[in-house]
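Quick one: structure for this chain?
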Amino acid sequence: MTIDQDLAAIDLLCAREFPARCGGSDAGFGGPRFHVVALRTSVGLRTGDGGERERTAEDFDAWKEAIARRLDDRWGQGRFWGPLTAGVRLARGEEIPEPWATLGVLVHQLCLWQVDGAGRWVALGVAERDETDEIRLLAAVTDEDPP
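Got it. Here's what it folds into:
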């Protein structure tokens, strides 16, 4: 896929209705108020070499930054969201709304933009925290404000 195809996938998520229930779909997974899709997924890194895993994560992060520059052109400078606060709140028993709870477990940092006039947020992040899973470049769209 190209950056233009990834942007088109994000645009499609922004235009789509949210599913009534949580679950998987042809576009990834979603639920009331959110969609999440993997724009890129590594192959064979679940139990792979640590060095190769690190290089792939760096490549995915560079791809994320390239998409982010294009989204900055559309919606202004994105902001960053780290899941640390959400993790602390979860540990205290607070409920963190989706997709933020799931994204907080998967990524170290998200780039966020609020879509002009749509009341929706777009988030990009590299899911690499689980060393037993493939690395994924995730895009999320939600109308739930970040916690």
